[in-house]
Write a structure and sequence with these properties.
By secondary structure, this protein is mainly alpha-helical. Helices cover about 55% and strands about 5% of the residues. It has one domain (about 5-160).
Length: about 170
């Protein structure tokens, strides 16, 4: 990459559109991973390379929390800071994700999960040369409700029931 090419890439501001990512964080991300995402086959590969994936520890059939592997410490620090900042936002999907995970995982793990999601969003923005589009705070609720509906229908069908769903009329 030519000197200053990453700086020109930042002028398009694809990373700065992500909630919690400011100019300095975007500079660290581009400096550490580069602007060319063809090196990584997927966002999961990038997350693993950066050391942002949760560990897996299983013994005797019990799954326990594992430690994340060591990755690039400058990138990880920037992503944790971005996760903290994104978790503080009010009307964003990343803020909603933090608030949903925090009671179960605690502050540190929730911030790490949001930081990983910031990295995966950055991967897609750089790979597709586009800007971030906010999904809204109710995105995960809508997604979860749809998944619950499909799972419940499948469970009833396995029990031998045929179910037809009709939505309730909404009061105007």
């Amino acid at each position: 990459m030519q000197p200053g090419a990453w700086h020109a890439h930042l002028n398009r501001k694809p990373l700065i559109t992500i909630p919690g990512v400011q100019r300095r964080t975007a500079e660290v991300m581009v400096a550490e991973i580069g602007a060319d995402m063809s090196r990584f086959p997927s966002a999961a590969h990038l997350s693993n390379w950066a050391g942002m994936c949760p560990g897996n520890r299983e013994s005797a059939g019990k799954r326990r929390r594992g430690k994340t592997r060591r990755g690039n410490r400058w990138l990880r620090t920037a992503l944790v800071e971005a996760g903290i900042a994104a978790g503080r936002t009010k009307r964003t999907a990343l803020g909603a994700r933090y608030r949903r995970l925090r009671p179960h995982l605690g502050h540190g793990r929730a911030v790490l999960a949001v930081g990983r999601q910031v990295l995966e969003i950055a991967y897609h923005l750089l790979a597709q040369a586009t800007t971030y589009r906010e999904l809204g705070t109710d995105y995960f609720d809508r997604f979860g409700a749809e998944r619950l509906k499909r799972r419940s229908l499948a469970q009833l069908q396995r029990l031998g029931y045929q179910v037809t769903l009709t939505p309730l009329p909404t009061a105007a």
